[in-house]
């Protein structure tokens, strides 16, 4: 899903928010929240992880059982790659995903969108070489986890769907959370939480900045009755959110 046209009105709406309201109260938890017993209770965790960068809280908002969720991990990194969201080498190490880098499906400070842009600029002779961080990165593999029957990369499927799935999944959650600038998380709220009529364990949650929907996510109830995240999708491009954050800083 790449809802390019849907971002246009949302971006326009964001531009109207600057200077319209007084400084809000701090809504970022100082310590890790209790496990979410309702889908809406995931929001404090998202704020805490994104702003405080406590990676130990990520497993609390991830499913306990990742069976059948390999495709969800694939989506996290593919969507993040489309959104030009990256992880640093330090973040990858802290998240335990170094082996995923060695296999070529993740690269520090590089996304498939960013690399494709660089390759296009190289072809048009706007630059003379790719950035150093893109050396040895295979665009055909980057941000695309291998399928079991993948003729070229299927050999990596047992590792990626087995021991590497947990760190890959958790890294994908954090990578997508980075799309919301730290400056905006204080004013992120839940606009709507809608139970799935076809699956009583799942709830669709819409996160909003002021009144503008920016993220759609799906929460699934775990065996212990707390909730974990199985899907994240941006409704507003992170670049628009970054622009909003910059404008807020300039307005201070």
Task: Summarize this structure briefly.
With 252 residues, the chain is α+β, with helices and mostly antiparallel strands. Helix content is 37%, strand content 15%. A hairpin with a 2-residue loop joins strand 2 (199-209) and strand 3 (212-221).
Describe the structure.
The chain is of the alpha+beta class and 252 residues long. It has one domain (7-251). It is 37% helix and 15% strand. The protein contains 10 helices and 4 strands; from the N terminus they run αααααααααββββα. Strands 1-2-3-4 form a 4-stranded antiparallel sheet. A hairpin with a 2-residue loop joins β1 (188-196) and β2 (199-209). α3 (70-82) runs parallel beside α8. The chain is globular. The relative contact order is 0.19. The model is unreliable at 1-9 and 16-22 (pLDDT under 50).
Mean pLDDT: 92
What is the quaternary state of this protein? single chain
What are the low-pLDDT stretches, counting only 5+ consecutive residues below 50?
1-9, 16-22
Structural class comes to alpha+beta
What's the domain count? 1
Give the H and E element order: HHHHHHHHHEEEEH
Distance from first to last alpha carbon: 36 Å
Largest sheet: spatial strand order: 1-2-3-4
Form type: globular
What composes the largest sheet? 4 strands, antiparallel
Helix run count: 10
| DSSP strand tally | 4
Radius of gyration: 18 Å
What portion of residues is helical? Answer: 25-40%
Strand percentage lies at 15-25%
Question: Which short descriptors sum up this protein?
Answer:
252 residues; alpha+beta; 4-stranded antiparallel β-sheet; 37% helix; globular; disordered N terminus
């Amino acid at each position: 899903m790449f809802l390019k046209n849907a971002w246009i009105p949302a971006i326009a709406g964001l531009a109207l928010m600057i200077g319209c309201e007084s400084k809000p109260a701090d809504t970022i938890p100082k310590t890790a929240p209790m496990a979410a017993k309702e889908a809406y209770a995931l929001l404090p965790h998202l704020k805490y992880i994104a702003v405080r960068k406590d990676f130990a809280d990520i497993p609390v908002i991830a499913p306990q059982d990742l069976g059948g969720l390999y495709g969800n991990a694939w989506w996290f990194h593919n969507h993040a790659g489309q959104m030009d969201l990256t992880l640093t080498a330090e973040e990858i190490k802290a998240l335990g995903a170094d082996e995923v880098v060695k296999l070529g499906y993740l690269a520090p400070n590089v996304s498939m969108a960013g690399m494709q842009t660089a390759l296009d600029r190289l072809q048009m002779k706007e630059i003379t070489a790719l950035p150093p961080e893109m050396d040895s990165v295979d665009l055909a593999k980057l941000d695309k986890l291998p399928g079991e029957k993948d003729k070229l990369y299927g050999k990596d499927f047992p590792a990626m769907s087995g021991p590497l799935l947990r760190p890959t999944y958790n890294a994908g959650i954090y990578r997508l959370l980075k799309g919301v600038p730290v400056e905006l998380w204080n004013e992120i709220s839940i606009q709507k939480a809608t139970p799935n009529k076809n699956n009583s364990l799942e709830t669709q949650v819409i996160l909003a900045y002021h009144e503008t929907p920016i993220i759609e996510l799906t929460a699934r109830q775990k065996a212990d009755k707390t909730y974990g995240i199985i899907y994240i999708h941006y409704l507003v491009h992170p670049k628009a959110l970054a622009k909003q954050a910059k404008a807020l800083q300039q307005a201070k």
